Amino acid sequence: MGLLDPQTGDFDAQRAQFQWNIPSEFNIAQAVCHQNGAAPDAVALYYENSHGTEARYSFGQIREYANRLANALQAMGVKRGDRVAIVLAQRPETAIAHVAIYSMGAIAVPLSILFGPDALQYRLSNSGASAVITDATPGHRERSSPSPRSEHPSDLR
């Protein structure tokens, strides 16, 4: 597929005609877990860490875990429009945390696990986050280690 549409002939004409189709309301969590047309047992997320440990999560599992986390956040007082910081390595729990936050209409504030204490404190103080999702590992986290319970995200039990 070429960069230019042969019917318009040039980039400027194509750019002038371009228009985003943005719905007035859209929730990515709903699109991922409820309206995607995939069977609940279809694989939605495949994860393999640097040690070769593999895990597969179905759409149904992601929906279940995200709903559990969203319910827990709501029980803690997090509501639509609130900011929720996520300080986790890139692993299934991180994706599930995003889905949970989006499903309740809250705003995810992803923060790097590479930030030191001062950088995290600054960002958390200035982000307006009403909650933080992180793991219990003190200090530096091993970025490639598998979750303690990779079949059941440890943050959601």
Architecture (CATH level 2) name: 3-Layer(aba) Sandwich
User: Which structural class best describes the helix and strand composition?
Assistant: alpha/beta
What level of helicity do the residues show? Answer: 25-40%
Q: What order do the SSEs take from the amino end to the carboxyl end, as H and E? A: HHEEHEHEHE
Q: How many DSSP helices?
A: 5
SSE topology sketch:
Layout: H1 11-17, H2 28-33, E1 43-48, E2 54-58, H3 59-75, E3 83-87, H4 92-103, E4 107-110, H5 117-127, E5 129-134
Parallel strand pairs: 3-4, 3-5
Antiparallel strand pairs: 1-2
Considering the chains and any ligands shown, give keywords for the structure.
157 residues, alpha/beta, Rossmann fold, 3-stranded parallel sheet, two-stranded antiparallel sheet, 5 helices, disordered C terminus
